[in-house]
Structure formats: C-alpha cells, structure tokens
C-alpha cells in the first residue's frame, strides 16, 4: 500500500514514433502528468515542503505563501494539505479557471494579480512580514535538488544510460538545473537543451525572464544550448502530440517536443528525452485545443 506522497516520481518514458522525423534518433517524453498532482512540479513541491519541515523552517501554525503560474501551486496545495499546513497561492489573473479551482479544491487560498512578476513581488512582501513562510521556488535549492535526486536518475536508468540529449522548458529552471547537474556528472557529453519563448510569444510554463526576475537557482553554464520556441509552434505541436501520439499535455510540453524534433533533424543518431510537464486537461477552458 502506498500513500499519495509515495506516488510522486517514477513516471514513464514513452517513445515518440509518428512525429519523429529521424529513424536513427530516438525521442522519448517523460510523462510528468502521471504524478498524483498532475505535473512535474509535484517533485519540487514535495522537496521544498519536506525539507523546510525537517529544518524547522515550517513550525506548527506557519502559513505558506508562494507565487506560481499554476502547476507548482497545484502541487503545493495538494502537499500542504497532506501535511495540514495552510497555504496562500498568488497567480496571474490569466491563469486557466481549472488551475484556480484545483488549488481551491485542495484547500488553498488563491489570490489573482496581473502578471507573474507582480505575483512574485506580492509573495515576497508578505513573506517579509514574518506572518508567512515564502518557499520561493525561484531561489530554493530544494527545487532543483528534487530533480537531481529523482527525475534525472530515472531518465538515466530508463534509457539504459543511453541518453545523449535532454530537452526541457525553462520556467523556474528547477527541472533543467537539477537534471543537468546529475546527467553531467554521470556523462559530461550529454547535451542539455533549454527552451524559452521567442520575443512576444506567451507559452505557459516557459519564460523569458526580465533580468531582475531571473531565477536565482539558474546557472547558464549548466545549459549547453537554448532554443527559442514560437507560441504558434508550441500550440500546433501540443495538438499534434495529442492527435498523433496520444499524449494529452500542456503547451510547454508541445514547445519542448518542438525543440526535440528540430534537434533530431540535426543529428545523425542519438537518444533525446524531453520533459512532458503536465496534463492537457488544465487547459481545456483556453484556446489551446480549440
């Protein structure tokens, strides 16, 4: 018998077959939507709360606060509830209604503001009062260390140590930082590829941060290459992924697969793994699948 927290991680790798343009290259998606909270953020959320409890940063009666664009908030709401901790989540007002309702279903208080930068400022101000504990996924080493300890070792194991390229969206950058740290230790030749939106593109889960808001956990030396993804390419690839590969995911996953396919076209051979961040049902009220 397993509790909910025991179900976080060990998500499957699935091969992309119909959309892969190069028969000499394997492309695999790591299906993070299979986590109990429905996204890759379950890993970081559990790591941040668990380690803060163990350090004594969170004491009985402590309230948590965090700014999030969605998936981290859902994961934190679920896990905070399991630990009996109150949490306030601050989201951009353009977040899909499904995300807000899911957080509230798990017992979180939700505040909507204009833009993720405003959300981060608000959460930091409240955290500074001492009334709340700010987890701050953008500067919290427990974020990327979750992926160093779990996500990357699973990929290494499940590709039989054959991975040659790792592709990930860059939001808080926790996933790519932690996976890069582990994968470069076991094989320095593995190429780490990050995805960011082209200028003017809006892709939930992938950010091009202003300098002042660049996540403090981000170390550019751990990323070998950054690929710019256009919003329309991410949308079309997300739809194709559902229709042709049977993978129902969000737009950041489509963006990462778009990068993986471009990469496959350049290679003579290789094994590419991209992070399929979440599930598509979080976006049904948007125009993503319209």
TrEMBL record:
<protein>
    <recommendedName>
        <fullName>Cysteine synthase</fullName>
        <ecNumber>2.5.1.47</ecNumber>
    </recommendedName>
</protein>
<comment type="pathway">
    <text>Amino-acid biosynthesis; L-cysteine biosynthesis; L-cysteine from L-serine: step 2/2.</text>
</comment>
<dbReference type="InterPro" id="IPR005858">
    <property type="entry name" value="CysM"/>
</dbReference>
<dbReference type="GO" id="GO:0004124">
    <property type="term" value="F:cysteine synthase activity"/>
</dbReference>
<dbReference type="InterPro" id="IPR050214">
    <property type="entry name" value="Cys_Synth/Cystath_Beta-Synth"/>
</dbReference>
<keyword id="KW-0028">Amino-acid biosynthesis</keyword>
<dbReference type="InterPro" id="IPR036052">
    <property type="entry name" value="TrpB-like_PALP_sf"/>
</dbReference>
<keyword id="KW-0663">Pyridoxal phosphate</keyword>
<dbReference type="Pfam" id="PF00291">
    <property type="entry name" value="PALP"/>
</dbReference>
<feature type="domain" description="Tryptophan synthase beta chain-like PALP">
    <location>
        <begin position="6"/>
        <end position="278"/>
    </location>
</feature>
<keyword id="KW-0808">Transferase</keyword>
<dbReference type="InterPro" id="IPR005856">
    <property type="entry name" value="Cys_synth"/>
</dbReference>
<keyword id="KW-0198">Cysteine biosynthesis</keyword>
<comment type="similarity">
    <text>Belongs to the cysteine synthase/cystathionine beta-synthase family.</text>
</comment>
<dbReference type="InterPro" id="IPR001216">
    <property type="entry name" value="P-phosphate_BS"/>
</dbReference>
<dbReference type="InterPro" id="IPR001926">
    <property type="entry name" value="TrpB-like_PALP"/>
</dbReference>
């Amino acid at each position: 018998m397993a509790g909910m927290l025991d179900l976080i991680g060990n998500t499957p790798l699935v091969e992309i077959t119909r959309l892969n343009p190069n028969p000499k290259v394997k492309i695999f998606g790591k299906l993070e939507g299979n986590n109990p909270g429905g996204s890759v953020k379950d890993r970081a959320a559990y790591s941040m709360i668990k380690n803060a409890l163990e350090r004594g940063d969170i004491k009985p009666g402590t309230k948590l606060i965090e700014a999030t664009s969605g998936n981290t908030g859902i994961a934190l709401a679920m896990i905070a509830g399991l630990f009996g901790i109150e949490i306030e989540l601050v989201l951009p007002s353009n977040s899909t209604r499904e995300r807000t309702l899911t957080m509230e279903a798990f017992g979180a208080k939700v505040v909507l503001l204009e833009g993720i930068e405003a959300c981060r400022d608000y959460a930091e101000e409240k955290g500074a009062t001492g009334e709340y504990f700010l987890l701050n996924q953008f500067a919290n080493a427990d974020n990327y260390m979750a992926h160093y300890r779990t996500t990357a070792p699973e990929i290494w194991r499940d590709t039989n140590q054959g991975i040659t390229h790792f592709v990930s969206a860059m939001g808080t950058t926790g996933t790519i930082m932690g996976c890069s740290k582990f994968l470069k230790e076991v094989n320095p030749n593995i190429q780490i590829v990050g995805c960011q939106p082209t200028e003017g593109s809006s892709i939930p889960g992938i950010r091009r941060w202003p300098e002042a808001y660049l996540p403090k956990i981000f170390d550019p030396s751990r990323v070998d290459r950054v690929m710019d993804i256009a919003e329309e390419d991410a949308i079309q690839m997300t739809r194709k992924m559902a229709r042709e590969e049977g993978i129902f995911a969000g737009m950041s996953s489509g963006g990462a697969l778009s990068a993986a396919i471009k990469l496959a076209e350049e290679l003579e051979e290789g094994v590419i793994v991209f992070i399929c961040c979440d599930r598509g049902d979080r976006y049904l009220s948007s125009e993503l699948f319209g």
